[in-house]
Amino acid sequence: MTDQEKTVRATGRCHCGGVRYTVRGPSRPVIQCHCEMCRRACGGVWKATAARRDDITIEDDDCLTRYRSTPAVQRGFCGRCGASLFWNHDERPYIGISAGTLDAPTGLKLALHIFTDDAGDWYELSDDGIAKAPGIPQDMSALKFPAE
Amino acid sequence: MSDNATGPASGHCLCGGVRYRAKALRRKVVACHCEMCRRWTGGLWRATAALRDEIEIEDDGCLAWYGSSGEARRGFCRTCGSSLFFDHVERTTLAIMAGTLDQPTGLELAFHIFVDDKADYEAITDDLPRLPAGGHGLKYP
């Protein structure tokens, strides 16, 4: 089966529609990252799903802009409206996708809070029953992609 | 903390290309669950606000504005993409994305707005007021 024959499982876009994407494969459960970099990048609290690199097709009207936030990570945003869209680690087989940019319904669940030691003081990390990791999680089981 | 002031405060975007200082922050943090704010931040929009004449913004040509509706524009860093400001024509305040503030902020979350539009993966687990649309009613000085 070619990539184009695989069923579209998710779609999304930035605020202005200048960057649009389709996902032809499973999406990872949502993580909420409380680190300072993610807070500053999205301005709030970053929530991300992810999809395998080969399953994502991005269309943009020359709007997708990339910023290398660490030596190994590029963040993708729309240069026209400023929406935060992608988190792309050079050595990982998947790309993080800002969950807020997904079209509804997503069918996804929040699975893990990470870098909770770095959370902002302006919100409470309430007892939501979701696993919490002070930094990078030791137990990655919540981040498994669902089966095809 | 009263609804009306804390500060001074400072903040910057991810790359530091846009920096700001506010004499005071005039509102607690509001969490907006509407689709526009969700798509713009990619996560959850959470903002405080400062009076326009009490905030100084320095940028190295990095601050870009996007007109997101007839009444509002949104400010972001064109270098790193950080979401920073929400500017409504009828308000005396400029909304500041709380995630871009330097810590500690001394702020607290006050309200959830537009909860009827919240994402299906979003669970609100605190006891703060939840409004189906806008109009949180937090007063400005």
Provide key terms for this protein:
heterodimer; A: 148 residues; mainly beta; Metal Binding Protein, Guanine Nucleotide Exchange Factor, Chain A; three-stranded antiparallel β-sheet; 1 helix; globular; B: 141 residues; seven-stranded mixed β-sheet; 10 strands
Please explain how this structure is put together.
The complex is a heterodimer of chains A (148) and B (141). The mean pLDDT of chain A is 92. Chain A is globular, with a radius of gyration of 15 Å. Chain A has 1 helix and 11 strands; from the N terminus they run βββαββββββββ. Chain A has an 8-stranded mixed β-sheet. In chain A, strands 1-2-5 form a 3-stranded antiparallel β-sheet, with no helix packed on it. Chain A has 148 residues and is mainly β. Helices cover 5% and strands 38% of the residues of chain A. Chain A has a single domain (3-140), classed as Beta Complex (Metal Binding Protein, Guanine Nucleotide Exchange Factor, Chain A), CATH 2.170.150. Chain B has one domain: Beta Complex (Metal Binding Protein, Guanine Nucleotide Exchange Factor, Chain A). Chain B has 1 helix and 10 strands, in the order βββαβββββββ. Chain B has one helix at residues 35-41; strands at 9-12, 18-22, 29-32, 45-51, 55-59, 63-67, 72-77, 83-88, 93-97, 109-113. In chain B, a hairpin with a 4-residue loop joins strand 8 (83-88) and strand 9. The two termini of chain B are 14 Å apart. In chain B, 47% of the residues are buried. The mean pLDDT of chain B is 91. At the A-B interface, helix 1, strand 4, strand 6 and strand 7 of A face helix 1, strand 4 and strand 7 of B.
